[in-house]
Design goal:
Order of helices and strands: HHHHHHHHHHHHHHHHHEHHEH
Distance between the termini: 66 Å
Keywords: Cell membrane, Copper, Electron transport, Heme, Iron, Membrane, Metal-binding, Respiratory chain, Transmembrane, Transmembrane helix, Transport
Radius of gyration: 25 Å
Membrane topology: Multi-pass membrane protein
Pfam families: COX1
Number of helices: 20
Strand content: under 5%
Strand order of the largest sheet: 1-2
Structural class: mainly alpha
Protein name: Cytochrome ubiquinol oxidase subunit I
Subcellular location: Cell membrane
Helix content: 55-70%
């Protein structure tokens, strides 16, 4: 009745695994007990879990991302500490456990930290930047969130019941096939990707339609903020790239469960098809992660340089060029796997070409700062740290674009250093900058700057200590994913890398302290104006946090920096002559239920509990039919309520209007 599930699935095979599982379970229980103790179940259900408000959905995405950041970093700390002490010894991690750790680390950081983080920022900001009251498909937005959470839950449950994959975050066959990985680990990995991948695909479709069809009527495409442009390009990549991941994961699952031969070494299977399909998704995924961060850097640089963004048009065209070219370079991930020299040369040249529009962006940001009155807000510090550090990763990427050099470096720690050198400053620093920048917009109070500055310095120093030694180790011949080694020359570098990981840990602690101190002192740091930085784009016209409807009247956009232009014309806060009722989607719990059913389907297929699979599929069908049959899915906010809210805000603005040029103090 329970398929493969039995008592042997519990993590008694290792004291460390049992400890990790215990911490996970206890952490979950503590959260449940606290919510119960304070009697907040009804509040969370009605105001948050069932909400279709894009801003609250965005906040929940970011909360998920921060939890998974801590979880994924614990894996990184375990790897670094294991390698630091594993010279001619077994260290403290068994080989199979070490393999689980590096597999879960990559999976969590890509799919369940970075993707939710960028999607959360997009949800909070983009509808406001384009003068919209909501996304195009609010219900789809809720489903996307809860499917992503379901995928993350599958990864977390693998800590407690069964084991996670040991085949790496890319899951290459034949090792990920049933012959070499007969346990449940790869199945957990497959279903976490399938469930969350469907949610990401729907997010891409949702924001393509939102940006193209829901922006303010007078806002032309070439008047959209850069973050909106990068979101549009990212959404296009998500809509076209994630289906490839869904297909390849489903095919691998069919190989494992039903004995198909898509990627086996016999009966007509072809393992290279797996590599091609995975990286047809995988390289666009790099830009799915990085392009939103590029948009954040554009917004932060303009605001804290107190200047109009330099080269707006070139930044838009560079973003579009990266979007197109990202589908033409996937083979550089496996130069060593047997393609002809001519094929390798074509993809190597394409890889070098895609660096050109990225270089254009770097120069535009630098020229924006040139002669600007720079304010060293924590968001700006992360941006400057990105500019310096990302260039190093880009240069190492151009080196790896040369097939002969890639043959030397492939599968070495040089490659590990390169992709972390691209993704941490290129993507994660951008998310941190966006978190610091838009936090008051989402919550209504500002973050503590001192702790933000401390977190930046520990992150940037820790990054260099953790990954620069890996470049050297790659030249010294160290392969990645080694849990032990016998070359004494390597150990000093690995000890330095472990110290770097500890510095990053302190940086994460500082971010936790920043949140704690800011929430504690929130009444002293309320953002009354909605525009704490003298911002340039439309999200700063709304209150902090914004009303459920965002805008009482749709903005009249005439220039690129629409809100800045309105302030110059003296119409930024002009009251409406009359107000109208606003229709907004009514909250629903169907998205939460569908996410729960998605989790149960993944769990049941992993453990071969087929009767539960059938019940959950029927439950999904019932939910969709029920939702489609509902007529009363919107609520009306009366014009009188909107007018009262806007008058109260106008009064607060008059009382707290900063002196000209004195917005920062």
């Amino acid at each position: 009745m329970l398929g493969r599930l039995g008592f042997d699935a519990l993590p008694f095979y290792s004291a460390i695994a049992f400890g990790g599982a215990s911490i996970t379970v206890l952490g979950g229980l503590v959260v449940l007990l606290l919510v119960t103790y304070f009697g907040k179940w009804r509040y969370f259900w009605e105001e948050w879990l069932t909400s279709l408000d894009h801003k609250r959905i965005g906040i929940m995405y970011i909360a998920l991302a921060l939890v998974m950041l801590v979880r994924g970093f614990v894996d990184a700390l375990m790897m670094r500490s294991q390698q630091a002490i594993a010279l001619n010894s077994n260290g403290y991690l068994a080989p199979e456990h070490f393999d689980q750790v590096f597999s879960s680390h990559g999976t969590i950081m890509i799919f369940f930290m970075a993707m939710p983080f960028l999607t959360g920022l997009i949800n909070i900001v983009v509808p406001q930047q384009i003068g919209a009251r909501d996304v195009a498909f609010p219900f789809m937005n809720s489903i996307s969130l809860w499917l992503t959470a379901a995928g993350a839950a599958l990864v977390m449950v693998s800590l407690v019941i069964g084991k996670f994959s040991t085949a790496g975050w890319t899951g290459y066959p034949p090792y990920s096939g049933a012959e070499y990985s007969p346990g449940v680990g790869v199945d957990y990995w497959i279903w976490a990707l399938l469930v969350s991948g469907v949610g990401s695909t729907m997010t891409g479709i949702n924001f393509i339609v939102t940006i193209l069809k829901c922006r303010a009527p007078k806002m032309r495409l070439m008047q959209m903020p850069l973050f909106t442009w990068t979101t549009l390009c990212t959404s296009i990549l998500m809509a076209f790239a994630f289906p490839a991941l869904t297909v390849v994961a489903a095919m691998l699952g069919l190989d494992r469960i039903l004995g198909f031969h898509f990627f086996t070494n016999d009966a007509g299977g072809n393992m290279m098809n797996y590599a091609n399909l995975l990286w047809i998704w995988g390289h666009p995924e790099v830009y799915i992660l990085i392009l939103p961060a590029f948009g954040i850097y554009s917004e932060v640089t303009a605001t804290f340089s107190q200047k109009r963004l330099f080269g707006y048009a070139s930044l838009v065209y560079a973003t579009a060029a990266i979007t197109i070219l990202s589908f033409s370079v996937w083979l550089h991930h496996f130069f060593t796997m047997g393609s002809s020299p001519n094929v390798n040369a074509v993809f190597g040249i394409a890889t070098m070409i895609i660096a050109v529009p990225t270089g254009v962006k770097i120069f535009d940001w630098v020229f924006t700062m040139y002669k600007g009155r720079i304010i060293f807000h924590p968001a700006m510090l992360f941006t400057i740290g990105f500019l310096v550090t990302f260039v190093l990763g880009g240069v190492s990427g151009v080196l790896l674009a040369l097939p002969p050099a890639d043959y030397l470096m492939h599968n070495s720690t040089f490659l590990v250093a390169h992709f972390h050198n691209v993704l941490i400053p290129g993507a994660l620093f951008g998310y941190f900058a966006g978190f610091q920048y838009w936090f008051p917009k989402a919550t209504g109070f500002t973050l503590n700057k001192a702790w933000g500055v401390r977190s930046f310095w520990f992150w940037i120093i820790g990054f260099y200590l953790a990954f620069m030694p890996l470049y050297a180790l790659g030249f010294l011949g160290m392969s990645r994913r080694m849990e032990r080694y016998d070359v004494a020359e390597w150990q000093p570098y690995l000890i330095v890398a472990a110290v770097g990981a500890l510095s990053v840990l302190i940086g994460i602690f500082c971010q936790g302290m920043q949140l704690y101190v800011s929430i504690r002192d929130r009444n002293k740091n309320i953002d009354v104006t909605g525009d704490p930085y003298n911002g340039r784009t439309l999200e700063w016209q709304t209150s902090s946090p914004p009303a459920e409807y965002n805008f009482a009247k749709i903005p009249d956009v005439q220039e690129i920096d629409a809100f800045w232009d309105m302030k110059q014309r003296g119409v930024a806060y002009a009251p409406a002559s009359d107000y109208e009722d606003i229709h907004l989607p009514r909250n629903t719990g169907v998205g939460v239920i569908l996410g729960g059913l998605g989790f149960l389907i993944g769990f049941a297929v992993t453990w071969y509990i087929w009767w539960l699979v059938v019940l959950c599929v029927l439950g999904v069908a019932a939910c969709l039919i029920t939702r489609a049959s509902q007529d009363n899915t919107f609520e009306i906010i009366p014009a009188a309520e909107i007018e009262a809210h806007e008058k109260a805000r106008s009064k607060a603005l008059e009382e707290h209007k900063p002196a000209p040029g004195d917005f920062w103090t």
